UniProtKB/TrEMBL annotation:
EC number: 3.4.-.-
This protein's name: Sporulation-specific protease YabG
UniProt superkingdom: Bacteria
One Pfam short name: Peptidase_U57
Species, as recorded: Paenibacillus plantiphilus
Cross-referenced InterPro entries: Peptidase_U57
Gene: yabG
Length: 295
């Protein structure tokens, strides 16, 4: 067993697939990162079992089915949106007009480098303008303070690793000290709200696995995890951001649509009514190189 191996924990029935991040030979323990869920954990090496083919394990199959369903739903919604835009413009002008789209711009901060790459791939696939940065959770407050005025995004995602601390004597789920990184996320959200207080002007999506949902909402998040203190999928915050990016500024983001579209569902993600960030323009700008200047 070595760093980078895929493993499951025997004591948990192999419910989640992890990748070994580091191994402490002295303690005979390993630090684990979930491959699909935003979970950071540690476990005794004897409790671990190496996974040779993750695609044939029950846990991986279930996750893959949910991910594929979520992706299909996003693509279908985009196709419906494009068709609806074309129909509306045709009715208004009695002819088909080439229009252009301005989806909301995303700033995505992630405490996990692998999840950051997966997230950016999905943004690219869905044609969402996004800037992503892998940054440790403890540094997010400073990065939010520095980048928001520079990039001026419509949507900011603040996520990474979190969880309820298992070694606390008194596990008070309403105390931020009971969580690995919820305090860091709350601090970053607070800075974002100092920059822009209007929740419709800047949409904030914050949290990770088992995060303090109530504290994140009270601090100013539009959407947050995790109401049921459950594990959330790595791409759940991305799905919410894409939904916000492609919901019209004339409409509120459908809470039922966005929550049911995530892999973890209503126990994993919640939020408040928020206006979307998607705009349509007409007519489509011409290529400037083909325009001749006149005196």
């Amino acid at each position: 067993m070595k760093q980078g191996d895929l493993v499951v924990r025997k004591s948990y029935g192999g419910d989640v697939i992890f990748r070994i991040s580091t191994i402490d030979e002295h303690r005979q323990a390993a630090v684990l990162k979930g491959t699909d869920y935003r979970l950071l954990a540690d476990a005794p090496i004897p409790d671990l079992s190496v996974v040779r083919d993750p695609e044939v394990t029950g846990a991986a199959k279930q996750v893959r089915v949910k991910v594929n369903a979520s992706m299909k739903r996003m693509q279908e919604q985009r196709q419906q949106q494009v068709q609806q835009n074309e129909n509306e413009l045709r009715r208004a002008s009695n002819q088909s007009q080439p229009y252009f789209e301005l989806p909301g711009k995303v700033l995505h901060l992630d405490g996990d480098g692998n999840y950051m790459k997966k997230s950016m791939q999905l943004y690219t696939q869905m044609r969402v303008p996004a800037y992503g940065l892998h940054v440790h959770e403890s540094q997010m407050t400073e990065i939010v303070y520095r980048l928001l005025p520079q990039l001026k995004p419509d949507i900011i995602v603040i996520t990474g690793h979190d969880g309820v601390l298992k070694n606390r004597v008194n596990k008070d789920l309403y105390s931020l000290s009971s969580y690995k990184n919820s305090q860091n996320f709350v601090n970053a959200v607070n800075v974002a709200r100092e920059y822009e207080k209007n929740r419709d002007s800047l949409i904030v999506i914050a949290g990770a696995c088992q995060s303090h949902y109530e504290a994140l909402l009270q601090t100013g998040s539009n959407f947050a995890s995790s109401p049921g203190r459950v594990l959330i999928h790595a791409l759940d915050p991305v799905y919410v951001a894409i939904k916000a990016s492609y919901t019209s500024i004339r409409e509120t983001i459908s809470l039922t649509d966005v929550i049911s579209g995530t892999i973890s569902g209503i126990d994993g993600v919640g939020g408040i009514e928020t206006l979307g960030k998607y705009r349509v323009g007409l007519p489509k700008p011409k290529i400037l190189s083909s325009v001749k200047a006149t005196l």
